[in-house]
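--- STAGE predict ---
source: upstream dedup step, 1 unique chain passed
mode: sequence only
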Amino acid sequence: MTAVDGGAPTFRSALRVRDFRLLLAGHGVGTIAQLALTLAVGVEVLERTSSGGWVSVTVALGFAPYVIFSGYAGLLADRWSRSAVLTWSFFARAGCAGVLAAGLLLQWSVPLLVLLAAVTAVLATPSYPALAAATVQCVPDGPLPAANALVTGVENATWIAGPGVFGVILLAGQGPAAGTVVAVGLFLAAGALAGRVQLPAPVRDPATGGMRAELAAGLVVVATDSRVRRPMTVAVIDNFLYGYLVVAMVLLAERLLGGAETIGWLNAGLSVGALGAMAVVNRLAGHRRPSIVLFAVMSTFAVATALVGLSGWFPVTIAMVTIAGAATLIAEVMAVTLLQRAAPEDLIARVFGVYDQLNVGAIAVGSLIAGPLADRLGADTAIVVVAGCCLVGSALATGALRHGRGRHAVPGRSRGRHASRAMADRAGGSTVTSRPARSPG
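--- STAGE serialize ---
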């Protein structure tokens, strides 16, 4: 494992770590492949069935595994080497995508194709928990916020690049099968990058209570340790409000802001804000009083979101959406950094497995309730009400938040193992040792 000296939390200092650099690149390439594959199957299903229902099922099954299986995926990264788990995930998806490409060429039935796409998504669930745990394992405490900002930035960039890659394939006159073949190549490239890293496996307690007890241990930490629970709660509120805002912008654009042509500008503003936040996120995430900064950032997000609903002037709406995009990225990076520093070392991956489940679920819930709430209250009133509730929730979650000392600066690393073991005993079993990560990479 490559090490660097602590110091100012810059992107350069984080990227000096060879292992982190390779795993981050692999995760980015794998995320592009995953999105391209999901879109390819969706297009094939639409061409064959002309059914919006089948397309919705295909896309839903591409994301549902993150809510259902991320807890188990985190356990994998707490049992084996995080780099090996990432490598296995990429190569396994390459094999599944290869079978799927053959199925597209041979015109297999639509349900079978959708099932194979869902299996590929299940195989992707260990990727984020493993990367989050590997980041703490690779990167010293000083540049840890910068490393987390890079992970978040790469995820945002690849979520844009994935559809773009598939779009280029279609523009070149190729079909969904070609898109799936390209995904196979990208998965193999991601596996080759991750395979160059050889992180040691986490130290495991020989006296374990089985999988159920080990999974329960991660849940117990999230439920009982306020240093974990509070930043986790802030992250859930942040992702819920983000999911709500994405749909609310569409409703506002169509009903209040002059038509659907404004939706592209609003989405662009959200992305520009997130990218612009990369310039300040390191300094804010490394602040000595994270509770104050995190509350200020979440307050900014909530107020900007409320003003999106209240403003009837499009330039102000664009400005508020841009501010909201910056705030949501900063809040997520800060919450992830606090979680990495606070979670017991032997349970980090399971904590981030729960993180993935809750936050993907929060985005889905926020998106799902936006339409019904707007129909009942009006799009502008609903967004103000939701933003106000999120502001109150953020205040409660950050009110007693304490800044955990940097993991690398804490002497006696066994302390985390003893604490997690005691919590596991209360849950009805014992635990193992290790740490996690997050996203559909």
